[in-house]
TrEMBL record:
It comes from the Eukaryota. This is DDE Tnp4 domain-containing protein. InterPro entries: HARBI1-like.
Amino acid sequence: MRRRRRQQDAEILDSGLRLTSSIDLIPVPPRNTRKYWMKVRSRDWWDRVVLHEFSDLEWKSNFRVSRQSFVKLCGLSESFMAPDAVTVREAIPLPMRVAIVLYRLGSSAEYRIVANQFGVHKCTVKKFVYMFCNGMVNGPVKQLIRMPNEEEAAEISKRFQAAHGIPQIMGLIDGTHIPVLPPAQGYRDFVNRKGWPSYVLQAVVDDRCW
């Protein structure tokens, strides 16, 4: 009985050795060496041209706001757009993040085009646009864009009348068309009275938002 058990153990050990030797004969593919850690991108347009060469007119033409309004937007969005304190790579500064968002929203350009312009990845552009829009809607917009209460409306009416001689004016309303790339299906639903596709933006302002 013991002899038979020893013989079985020997056979199991021998088959295991044969299996191990056959595995060793399988060629192992070589590991791919990393060619680069980060793709080379250029921020020359932002660092040199925009920050040091842009006139006020060029700034407003590209970002659709004045420099003063841009600084205010950076302050309003700092709580949710500022880079983390600790990052693996060099963080993109807050002003550049806001500029990327405004350039994308103001031009309706593809993420790829905006990314190449600022020297970042297109996923970075998409992330910043979402962070900015989501943060503004859930934060500053609720405080800045609202209807006046009764006392505020009466005060606005007094200021309008004192400045222009017209009583009972509590706001001025106007609209503008924002060009968009509509989907193939339902294209006609986006066409405005001028014959091209757009979103309609309508706003009411008081006497201090000229």
